[in-house]
Amino acid sequence: MTPLDAAQLDAADPLAGFRERFVLDGGPAAYLDGNSLGRAPRATLDRLERLYREEWAAGLIGSWEHWVDLPTRVGDELGAAVLGAAPGQTVVADSTSVLLFKALHAAAALRPDRDGLVVLGGDFPTDRYLATEVARARGLRLQEVVPRPTEPVTAEQVRAAVGPGTAVVLLSHVDYRSAALADLRAVTAAVHDAGAVVVWDLSHSAGVVPLALDADDVDLAVGCTYKYLCGGPGAPAYLYAAARHHDRLVNPVPGWFGADDVFAMAHEHVPAAGVRRMLSGTPVVPGVVAVQEGVRLVAEAGVAAVRAKSVLLTRRVLERAETDLVPVGWQVATPREDARRGSHVVLSGPGAREVVDRLARRGVLADFRHPDLLRVGLSPLSTSFAEVDAAMDAVAEEARRP
């Protein structure tokens, strides 16, 4: 694990050039939180300046001629580059929470004769909060499927949890704590075998794990764009809905942008054809164009290449953890098999919160999760192997402090 090893890896990295396309000056010494917020692409800052100066300041209301279809246009770009989705099935809008609320209601409406909603035990809090509220509002029975610690949920576990009364199953593709990566195709098939609808949260996989939502027969999916898609803090989320469901999708938050004729100002809401019916209010234009720039970076690199580097980066963190941290009482809380983890590594150890705080004072930004988890989030387009080595040196030093 010498600096020369990292230098050799960086020299051989086909994505190394992408690092310079992010703003690095003035940032931390090492950034291990790319699974929470990606670095800022230089192209995004340039694009936003043009948006404000030329399209807003100079173009004013006339710019709405090309802004009005941004949610679907950028959705199609995201679908093609990241989701494995044909055009007309993805929109960029709202937040992940709002879109998840919409997706759950719409999914339940597709199975009106069923009353079960299955969620992942220990999933991200918002997912569980929203599932609980949708179940309450629609009179559904809420049931949990609980995977084994540090392991992804399996098709077998899902089969055991679903039945003829199950309407919807909500699952995260990558566990936000352990980085355990589920077999999306197999689990989706298990849900469909029970006649239920699946909603996937792709927040920790889109942009860093190859996806094929159309080919894998996914019903609905949502996710954020400020992690591996580098859309910026609070950037709009995305919703995918398979075309086969469009004519029966019900948006529980109907608004003018999801209407058949946006500018008709009709007395009654008539939903648009296709996935655009899942839109509600006016899109946040700067947010959507920022997402577009991030998606274009990922499209240029190719998700397969991003995934290949992600595997190498996470593997390196795991190797360093085994060498430097396990001997002093730390544990690895992430699957060691490459195919079973996303792009972050979770380490569990004594005083994890204090270690993360001390790292921050050294300019090494990592992430703490209760009760004793240190997350190392690796965004392949902006993270170098030398940066990872320097960061893990610091982690090892702080973990060994009394």
UniProtKB/TrEMBL annotation:
Organism the protein comes from: Aquipuribacter hungaricus
Bilayer-crossing regions: none
Summary of the function given for this chain in its UniProt record: Catalyzes the cleavage of L-kynurenine (L-Kyn) and L-3-hydroxykynurenine (L-3OHKyn) into anthranilic acid (AA) and 3-hydroxyanthranilic acid (3-OHAA), respectively.
Name of this chain's protein: Kynureninase
Keywords: Hydrolase, Pyridine nucleotide biosynthesis, Pyridoxal phosphate
Reactions that this protein is recorded to catalyse: L-kynurenine + H2O = anthranilate + L-alanine + H(+); 3-hydroxy-L-kynurenine + H2O = 3-hydroxyanthranilate + L-alanine + H(+)
Cofactor names: pyridoxal 5'-phosphate
Upper taxonomic lineage: Bacteria, Bacillati, Actinomycetota, Actinomycetes, Micrococcales
Enzyme Commission (EC) number: 3.7.1.3
One Pfam family it belongs to: KYNU_C
Entry similarity comment: Belongs to the kynureninase family.
Subunit comment: Homodimer.
Xref: InterPro entries: Kynureninase, PyrdxlP-dep_Trfase, PyrdxlP-dep_Trfase_major, PyrdxlP-dep_Trfase_small
The keyword Hydrolase is annotated on this UniProt entry: yes
Pathway named in the protein's UniProt entry: Amino-acid degradation; L-kynurenine degradation; L-alanine and anthranilate from L-kynurenine: step 1/1; Cofactor biosynthesis; NAD(+) biosynthesis; quinolinate from L-kynurenine: step 2/3
